[in-house]
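Write out this protein's structure.
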Amino acid sequence: MANRHITFTCSIVKKCEFDVFEHIKNAPLNRRYLTWIIDYFGNSIHFEYQDMNLQTVTYSAGYKLKISSYRGLIERIDYVSADIQQRLLTCEYNDKNQLIRCDSHQFGDIYHEYDENGYLTSWKDTQKHIPK
């Protein structure tokens, strides 16, 4: 049990939640990863990791998100259920590991720009409009 930390919170509107943080294989000993969220109604979200990268998020409603990453940067997120597998998001990065483009199933392409100091200065959608 030394590798697990559990928190329990409740509010006056019967919104209770368990959060479970665990040590995962090959991770620094002082680091814990969120592995479960369970609410008052028994709904749950399970987080699975491989090589210290989030790999799968499974929902008690019967679907999951499969996450592909490289060096800690998310490259793809896929929605998976019994009937469907659909790409939700694809990300691209520059040589400084800055996010430069997201291809979202829902919103299309979003482009990100940075200044010489590495600060995000703008983002634009597929039609090159700047979101407000």
